[in-house]
């Protein structure tokens, strides 16, 4: 009776940590998606938040924090799953299926490490709270394609403006 109850508890424990690992991975995917969107909006080259570079910097910082949280959730999930696999593998009394550490866990560790490194780099690069850069970049109007010829000054076309754009070349 005791062995049967112990097997039921082990299977219940296994089911609980598998469900918790799934929940952590789903949370990591959601945070990674929102982190990617926040990072894309927070880039200086995007037109999503206009010319307000302070707002863009804060949005990119939020994206970096979301990447850090994604990496932490992935690292916790993968490490917890690997710990349980090794405990069951080396337990001589465990009668269920014994799994080994496979490629999926190594890929999970690498992706968690990359997400943590990328999130920390993005968060540090944003420098939230810096006082020297509160003014956005000055507006520079486009030149509208006034390109002068590089011909010799004695040539008549040397001082006449050309009406071709900056990228009108072959």
UniProtKB/TrEMBL annotation:
<comment type="similarity">
    <text>Belongs to the claudin family.</text>
</comment>
<keyword id="KW-1003">Cell membrane</keyword>
<protein>
    <recommendedName>
        <fullName>Claudin-15</fullName>
    </recommendedName>
</protein>
<dbReference type="Pfam" id="PF00822">
    <property type="entry name" value="PMP22_Claudin"/>
</dbReference>
<keyword id="KW-0965">Cell junction</keyword>
<keyword id="KW-0796">Tight junction</keyword>
<keyword id="KW-1133">Transmembrane helix</keyword>
<keyword id="KW-0812">Transmembrane</keyword>
<feature type="transmembrane region" description="Helical">
    <location>
        <begin position="20"/>
        <end position="41"/>
    </location>
</feature>
<feature type="transmembrane region" description="Helical">
    <location>
        <begin position="62"/>
        <end position="83"/>
    </location>
</feature>
<keyword id="KW-0472">Membrane</keyword>
<dbReference type="GO" id="GO:0005886">
    <property type="term" value="C:plasma membrane"/>
</dbReference>
<dbReference type="GO" id="GO:0005923">
    <property type="term" value="C:bicellular tight junction"/>
</dbReference>
<dbReference type="InterPro" id="IPR004031">
    <property type="entry name" value="PMP22/EMP/MP20/Claudin"/>
</dbReference>
<feature type="transmembrane region" description="Helical">
    <location>
        <begin position="103"/>
        <end position="125"/>
    </location>
</feature>
<dbReference type="InterPro" id="IPR006187">
    <property type="entry name" value="Claudin"/>
</dbReference>
């Amino acid at each position: 009776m005791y062995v049967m109850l112990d097997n039921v508890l082990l299977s219940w424990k296994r089911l609980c940590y598998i469900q918790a690992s799934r929940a952590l991975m789903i949370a990591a995917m959601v945070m990674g998606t929102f982190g990617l969107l926040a990072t894309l909006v927070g880039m200086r080259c995007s037109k999503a938040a206009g010319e307000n570079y302070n707002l863009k910097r804060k949005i990119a910082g939020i994206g970096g924090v979301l990447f850090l949280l994604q990496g932490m959730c992935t690292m916790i999930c993968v490490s917890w799953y690997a710990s349980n696999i090794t405990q069951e593998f080396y337990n001589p009394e465990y009668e269920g299926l014994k799994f080994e550490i496979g490629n999926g866990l190594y890929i999970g560790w690498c992706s968690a490490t990359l997400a943590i490194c990328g999130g920390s780099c993005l968060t540090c690069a944003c420098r939230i709270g810096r006082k020297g850069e509160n003014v956005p970049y000055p507006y520079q109007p486009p030149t509208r394609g006034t390109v002068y010829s590089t011909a010799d000054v004695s040539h008549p076309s040397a001082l006449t403006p050309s009406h071709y754009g900056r990228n009108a070349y072959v």
